[in-house]
Amino acid sequence: MVRASRLVTAAVVAAAALLPLGVSAAPAHADDEACAEYLEGQGRDDEAIQEACEAGAAGNGPECVRILVGQGITPSRATQACVLAGRPSDDAAPRSLARLRG
Question: Domain residues of the chain, as ranges?
Fold first, then answer.
């Protein structure tokens, strides 16, 4: 059990190191839905997945990866999902523009 725990910890650390620096600071209107949709396409969809994607969208990429790896997602897929969560959503620009127009 200790060995498995160390393996998961090592995987999380390795995957978190792969996250681009931009994910650590969440952009306006980050897209947790893209993360959830990506994982749904992988056959995964539950509350823990949503929690992880929300963490990624909030700028906490390492927490996102940790939760996903803990749910059995491979580190590479977890990293990809968390990167997707940290990206601006497709509708971010129109919403921002609408606010500027008043």
Answer: 2-101
